[in-house]
Amino acid sequence: MGAHGPIPKRSEERRRRNKDDGPELIQAPSGQPAGLPDLPEPNPLWDPIARDWYLSLRQSGQAAFYEPSDWAVARYAAELMSRVLDCSERGPNGQLVAALNSVMSSLLTTEGDRRRARMELERKKSSEPRLASVSPLDSYRDIAGG
């Protein structure tokens, strides 16, 4: 797991590039990685939110770095999440929620967790062409007196 403290900025948002930031930054494509192993299906008794979270890991770029033991931890986290969400009588237990957040963090499931671990998923570029700004043309026209 990465360092504590504020979440670092993405590499393209940083201004200062001459300072050594520690371990090398790992960049990986976002989206479902190729060659995932055959994974167990979610337990049909799990809460729908836990099932959706578990299935979303298959579609996430960090899954390219998961080993079989990581997938086992993901199943454990989904089971724990399901139990936390199904605590309808008394509400969720704070210690269970903290433990669940810790397990999810170890799987790098949020962007903040990945940044702290020096991993970035490359965002997909939009396919629409980007129009140029017209303001420089207006400035030239004003200077030329037109």
Notes on the structure:
With 146 residues, this protein is mainly alpha-helical. The protein is built from 5 helices and 2 strands, in the order E-H-H-H-H-E-H. The chain has helices spanning 48-58, 68-85, 94-106, 111-116, 135-144; strands spanning 26-29, 119-122. Helix 1 (48-58) packs antiparallel against helix 2 and helix 2 (68-85) runs antiparallel to helix 3 (94-106). It is elongated and about 75 Å long.
Question: Which SSEs are present, and which pair or pack?
Answer:
Layout: E1 26-29, H1 48-58, H2 68-85, H3 94-106, H4 111-116, E2 119-122, H5 135-144
Parallel strand pairs: 1-2
Helix pairs in contact: 1-2, 2-3
Distance between the termini: 60 Å
**Secondary-structure element order, as H and E?**
EHHHHEH
Q: Kindly estimate the percentage of residues that lie in beta strands according to DSSP.
A: 5-15%
**What spatial order of strands do you see in the largest sheet?**
1-2
* Overall mean confidence score, pLDDT: 79
Q: What count of helical segments does DSSP give? A: 5
In terms of structural class, how would the helical and strand content be classed? Answer: mainly alpha
- Our Rg estimate from Cα atoms comes to 22 Å
Number of strands: 2
Shape: elongated
> What is the share of helical residues?
25-40%
pLDDT < 50 stretches: none
Question: Quick one: biggest sheet?
Answer: 2 strands, parallel
